[in-house]
């Protein structure tokens, strides 16, 4: 079922979102100082292509630098990306068929709001949650 949802997602929403994140990543990588945000954009683009069966977890080794970087990201890009995901999520949840895709947009809100210090992992895989003790 995850594969079918991912294929439908890719056709109707994921490809365009991933291309947008890749474009933003390329723009960020042009300047030396914004490379961490560019790499985060590339990670989010991969997540936007295939979101079902994956989740975002907090990295236990993330420090103060990622917190400061997230504040900069929040001001310049995070708010706008989050508003886009929320708007698309609400619009897709209006239809019965679009509810899983709307929920996928809502699932992307934390990583689009503050991407540094987060990791995208496969759900259900052993050891998928680093730093979490069972």
From TrEMBL:
InterPro entries: Inner_membrane_protein, UCP028777, YccF. Keywords: Membrane, Transmembrane, Transmembrane helix. The chain crosses the membrane at residues 30-50, 62-80, 86-106. Residues 4-54, 69-118 form the Inner membrane component domain. It comes from Streptomyces smyrnaeus. This is YccF domain-containing protein.
